[in-house]
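Quick one, probably user error.
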């Protein structure tokens, strides 16, 4: 395991201003949102907007340093503009070069970060360098699909075959982790509209935690950590989450979902009375 590690996830909304500009629309906000959704369905048959039209409202991460110390964090539009969120996140790579871990980060999160950073006129040399500034990144960089500087778990677990892509929620629950914690639907727009920032960051951090736990299982599969090391990392994660009030529901649901498989049941041993 190469430390430090940064597991991350982003949450987004449709950027109505950019959408109106690209499509030449002059409408009220409610009508604009509907018009952009309709146009997107006509283009692709789905509501999910094109990458450049995603405005970042939250970036969450789990940082694991060289000593194994964990820190869960979120930058959201409760306190920062999108440009400030991006600046804070990108500054991490100026100071350190962690192993980056994501779920679908290669196809969604990093491209969104790239376009939105360009939109705001930001620089992100350390994250997007492919050898122009640092020769060592010529063949091992955060964009390279087949190396380990950025591990997109959805991609590597599909053996780089798009037909095998799976949902984070499904794999997390299959392995005995909380997944979306019984939430159905996508609530991010409503969280932002109602300014329910704690629910937003908790949701985003939950995806980060699920990704981290799946990453540990991936390292075990590849023989990069032993079973005893996997158990130690899982227990360290549980102990850390006990100190995070916002993730107590995640911890409680994990205690239940862990019992679904014999292997994950060991995460929470049954206490004898």
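Nope, works fine. Designed sequence:
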């Amino acid at each position: 395991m190469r430390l430090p590690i940064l597991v991350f996830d982003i949450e987004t909304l449709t950027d109505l201003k950019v959408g109106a500009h690209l499509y030449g629309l002059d409408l009220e906000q409610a009508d604009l949102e509907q018009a952009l959704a309709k146009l997107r369905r006509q283009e692709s048959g789905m509501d999910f907007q094109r990458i450049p039209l995603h405005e970042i409202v939250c970036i969450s991460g789990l940082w694991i340093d060289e000593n194994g110390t964990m820190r869960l964090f979120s930058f959201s539009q409760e306190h920062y503009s999108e440009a400030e969120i991006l600046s804070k996140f990108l500054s991490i790579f100026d100071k350190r070069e962690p192993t980056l871990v994501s779920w679908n980060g290669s196809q969604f999160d990093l491209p969104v970060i790239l376009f939105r950073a360009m939109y705001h006129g930001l620089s992100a040399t350390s994250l997007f360098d492919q050898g122009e500034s640092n020769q060592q990144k010529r063949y091992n960089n955060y964009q390279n699909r087949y190396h380990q500087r950025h591990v997109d778990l959805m991609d590597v677990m599909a053996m780089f075959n798009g037909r095998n892509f799976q949902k984070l929620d499904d794999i997390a629950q299959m392995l005995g982790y909380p997944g979306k914690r019984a939430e159905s639907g996508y609530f991010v727009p409503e969280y932002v509209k109602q300014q329910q920032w704690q629910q937003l960051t908790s949701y985003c951090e939950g995806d980060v935690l699920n990704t981290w736990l799946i990453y540990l299982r991936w390292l075990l599969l590849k023989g990069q950590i032993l079973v005893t090391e996997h158990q130690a990392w899982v227990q360290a994660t549980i102990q850390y989450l006990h100190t995070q009030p916002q993730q107590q529901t995640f911890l409680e649901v994990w205690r239940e979902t862990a019992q679904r498989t014999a292997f994950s049941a060991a995460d929470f041993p049954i206490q004898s009375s």
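Residues 19 and 36 are 7 Å apart (CA to CA).
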